[in-house]
Specification:
The complex is a heterodimer of chains A (387) and B (384). In chain A, strand 2 and strand 3 form a beta hairpin. Chain A is 73% helix and 4% strand. Chain A has one domain: ABC transporter involved in vitamin B12 uptake, BtuC. The two termini of chain A are 26 Å apart. With 387 residues, chain A is mostly helical. In chain A, the strands form two sheets. Chain A has a two-stranded antiparallel sheet with strand order 1-4. A two-stranded antiparallel sheet of chain A has the order 2-3. Chain A is globular. Chain B folds into two domains: 211 residues, Rossmann fold; 154 residues, Rossmann fold (3-Layer(aba) Sandwich), CATH 3.40.50. In chain B, helix 6 crosses helix 7 and helix 12 crosses helix 13. Chain B is α/β, with parallel strands linked by helices. The chains are: A mainly alpha (387), B alpha/beta (384). Chains A and B meet through helix 2, strand 1, strand 3 and helix 13 of A and helix 2, strand 8, helix 8, helix 9 and helix 10 of B.
Chain lengths: 387, 384
């Protein structure tokens, strides 16, 4: 079958699916007399909020896959770690100076070591300045201030990024060159390990994540006699997702490290022969992917108000689904897939209230359909093209 | 040869000397119901400190965490079958109790669920008992309260469709509310749901006067938070699964004013003698757990303690550790002076005859500053 034939078939399929969807939508809205315009808008805003959260998680997921072709099942757990780091940063500060000093030495030391290995910091003067900045900044943040959500978010992103690099070094690097199945199984093991470690370290209880921020202030506007409600998350998360998408795209296409990433994605062995430090590039990918997971984790926790050691499981599966639907390895695809998933979950409940318990089933049925008819995802055009 | 015989004989003698009565504990110590599970365990531990021996033998608690999963609960039950315990205390929730009860009934091991309220649990067989009332009472009482006392004409009901307790309870509530002339609208969700915005949008046109929530706190916290964010200011009424610090701690001020039914705390127990016992137990509890917050002591602690107390009493009454004899003794217990009230199993399916249901209300300023007000108590005998 030629490429053009394949393309026309999938276009036909999308067209057919789209028409079916619109017809179903029209029929359903027409048969629901109390489904007012305000409710339509409300559903749309709810779906956008949920979908953009999924998109944010899926970005990190797809990024890691794009480079080393590893479905990082532990991404959900990295996401959980990010939430807990931010939680502790907010609730344990200001710390006693001794404890702050200890945490600074441990955290700052690890961060510095990881950053050094990531960015080739050879010049002593620069390294010294960076060390001063990291140690001083961490100590200042921990010891003297009660951290707000923004500082907690930034601190958590840094710590989670480092945790991601450590995870890669411990769990995945020794398996470089091993069959892909071994990596996959290791990823699942890493996921279980982090879940159970979380239960031991953080306790098994559900904790409230009560960040009083502008993000979860209820807001509303009127449509006719009815009111539509939303929170700050609705504006911030899509904006953050869009900015991250733009910046990541720029990073991957325009910078030296981005070029090294693309080279590694295409063929790790050849890239290594050409002088690319593959281990470094992969570690950097995990660093960025984990930073994204931490950002998503904090946003998710602010939105839903609670955290627990198993919280990463479902969002992890959803993000995986979103990434595959959009075309795994493709950044815009992940965002599209996440949004689509959010819309499905909201509208299934809205249009078929009796089936609301099965909203996840609809998302996974879509996943199966996509895998059957468009295995490279909605956006992914060619399986060899990654990132 | 002779030496090894001697060793064997010593071992046998030794094991007689150290004879222990083993009681299994199958609880939700991690996962979604971790808070309630640990409260129940603390109740059992305190009761065990008070009565550490029976028939001159030490009682050994074998603790198994079912991780709030059906598979985990079955695994715990099978482990107890292999270890040969006399009885199993737990699980707390109906969804974990029912699968464990099926295993234990087949093996002929006593099980006392501390707080399962689904009527089915004790129907599984003659070895299965419970410490709680059943959901037909709880649902009826709550519906009568919402429709008659609060005067609600339209009630939206939220139920967790994949949980035996939540699904069953919502059904009993719905039935009674309709009988009393109210209109209802049921919305479903599943375990670990965090986004309720679509379900909330569905009840917008229905304009409910009150909302009944029959689920747990892991879902309840995001539910209440979003309910308030989405502009609903109606009274919400919940059930005993809301008697969990994870609720106010998870959603903070959104839980302010939330009313729920639950196991009676000492103040609400009508029988003065039972009330005294409960107060004494409460004092002991805070003596053992010095760091415990006032919110940590609730009806689940009492239920855990009494599950232990009643099983030990049955072993004592039977005068043997033979499981069959102990079961018969347990099934014939009448007016046992428990810390959660009077316990009578004689002539029932394993559900105590007279239980008290308390009505409570959360007063929440913030996630770390909240209290629980005791409104009133109703005994199941009164309702019949």
């Amino acid at each position: 079958m030629t490429a053009s034939k394949l393309a026309s078939r999938s276009t036909l399929f999308s067209l057919f699916a789209g028409l079916l969807f619109v017809a179903l939508l029209g029929w359903r809205i027409a048969s629901m007399p109390d489904y007012t315009f305000a409710r339509i808008v409300q559903d749309f805003l709810n779906a956008l909020t949920l979908g953009s959260l999924y998109a944010l998680i899926a970005l990190g997921y797809t990024m890691v896959y794009g480079i080393i072709r590893l479905i990082n099942f532990a991404h959900g757990e990295i996401f959980m770690l990010g939430s807990y780091f931010a939680f502790y940063a907010m609730t344990l500060t200001p710390m006693h100076w001794g404890l702050a000093l200890l945490t600074t030495v441990l955290l700052g030391g690890t961060v510095l070591l990881v950053l050094r290995s990531l960015f080739n910091l050879e010049e002593p003067k620069r390294t010294f300045l960076l060390a001063l900045l990291i140690f001083g900044g961490t100590f200042f943040l921990l010891a003297f201030r009660h951290l707000g959500w923004i500082e907690a978010l930034l601190l958590s992103m840094l710590a989670t990024g480092v945790a991601g690099v450590l995870l890669e070094a411990v769990a995945y690097r020794p398996l470089r060159g091993a069959p892909r199945e071994s990596m996959l199984i290791t990823a699942i093991a890493a996921s279980f390990f982090l879940q159970n470690m979380g239960q031991l370290l953080f306790g098994p209880r559900v904790r409230g994540f009560n960040a009083e921020t502008v993000l979860n202030q209820p807001r509303s506007f009127a449509i006719g006699e009815e009111t539509v409600y939303f929170t700050g998350i609705l504006i911030v998360v899509p904006a953050v997702t869009a900015v991250l998408l733009f910046v990541l795209n720029l990073f991957v296409t325009r910078t030296r490290l981005g070029k090294a990433m693309r080279a590694t994605a295409q063929d790790a062995e050849v890239a290594q022969m050409m002088g690319v430090n593959v281990n470094q590039v992969i570690a950097l990918t995990f660093f960025i992917g984990s930073i994204l997971a931490a950002a998503a984790g904090v946003m998710y926790s602010i939105r839903f108000g609670q955290i627990h050691p198993l919280m990463g499981l479902m969002p992890g599966i959803k993000a995986f689904t979103a990434a595959v639907i959009g075309g795994i390895g493709s950044l815009p695809g992940a965002v599209l897939g996440g949004l689509l998933l959010g819309f499905i979950e909201i509208y299934v409940v809205s249009f078929f209230p009796t089936l609301s318990a099965y909203k996840d089933v609809f998302a996974f049925v879509l996943l199966i359909l996509i895998l059957l008819f468009r295995p490279s995802g909605l956006v992914g055009e060619d399986l060899t093209e990654k990132v | 040869m002779r030496k090894s015989l001697l060793v064997a004989a010593l071992l046998v003698l030794g094991s007689f000397g150290l004879a222990q009565v083993k009681i299994g504990i199958n609880l939700e110590l991690s996962g979604r119901f971790a808070a309630i599970g640990n409260q129940t365990l603390n109740g059992i531990k305190v009761a065990n400190l008070q009565t550490p021996e029976v028939l001159g033998q030490k009682v050994e608690l074998v603790i198994c965490d079912n991780e709030t999963s059906r598979e985990g609960s079955i695994a715990c039950a099978q482990r107890f079958v292999n270890e040969g315990v006399i009885g199993v205390l737990g699980a707390i929730s109906s969804s974990m109790s029912i699968p464990a009860a099926e295993v234990l009934q087949d093996a002929g091991i006593i099980m006392i669920s501390t707080s399962s309220t689904n009527p089915q649990t004790t129907q599984i067989g003659d070895y299965i008992f419970r410490m709680a009332y059943t959901d037909d009472f709880q649902g009826k009482l709550a519906a009568a309260y919402v429709v008659k006392d609060l005067g609600a004409k339209k009630v939206a009901i939220f139920r967790q469709i994949d949980d035996d307790y939540s699904y069953g309870l919502a059904g009993f509530f719905d039935e009674t509310a309709k009988k009393l002339g109210a209109k209802t609208l049921v919305q479903d969700f599943v375990a670990n749901t965090v986004d309720f915005t679509a379900q909330l949008n569905n009840i917008r046109s229905f304009k409910p006067d009150a909302i009944y929530y029959s689920g747990f706190c892991a879902e309840g916290a995001p539910f209440m938070k979003q309910l308030r964010e989405q502009g609903f200011d109606q009274q919400v009424v919940g059930a005993d699964a809301s008697d969990d610090p994870q609720c106010p701690e998870g959603a903070g001020a959104a839980f302010d004013g939330y009313i729920f039914t639950g196991f009676a705390t000492p103040n609400l127990i009508p029988d003065p003698e039972a009330k005294k016992r409960a107060e004494a137990f409460k004092a002991k509890y805070f003596e053992v757990f010095k760091d415990a917050k006032p919110g940590d002591f609730n009806g689940f602690v009492l239920a855990g303690a009494d599950a232990y107390n009643v099983l030990v009493a049955a072993i004592k009454a039977a005068g043997t550790t033979d499981v069959k004899a102990v079961r018969d003794a347990l099934a014939n217990i009448e007016h046992f002076p428990g810390v959660s009230g009077d316990i009578t199993y004689k002539g029932t399916d394993g559900t105590p005859k007279d239980r008290t249901i308390g009505f409570y209300q959360y007063k929440v300023k913030s996630a770390s500053d909240w209290t629980k007000i005791e409104l009133f108590g109703k005994s199941t005998a009164e309702v019949q």
